[in-house]
Amino acid sequence: MDLTIKDPQDGQEMHFKVEPEMYGDEQGLRVIFPEKDSFVMVYRGEDKWEVVDEQFVNPDLVEIIGKALHPRAHYVSNSNPS
Asked: What pLDDT was estimated at residue 52?
């Protein structure tokens, strides 16, 4: 999926590609910059995302990306009959 956010430092639009990726036994998301650098984020609950590969990523950027991903990061099943 494509994701557009505002840079927390200068307010400029930033464009990323986001692809699902397994990190160990957890489902993560690889965030890919236009220059092809990337990092993996895993949802830790309560609106908290953690960068799990060995890159340092600005925590403000992680928070903004997490907020943009949040509506897409959850799947609610309607298969439970009432």
From this structure: 93
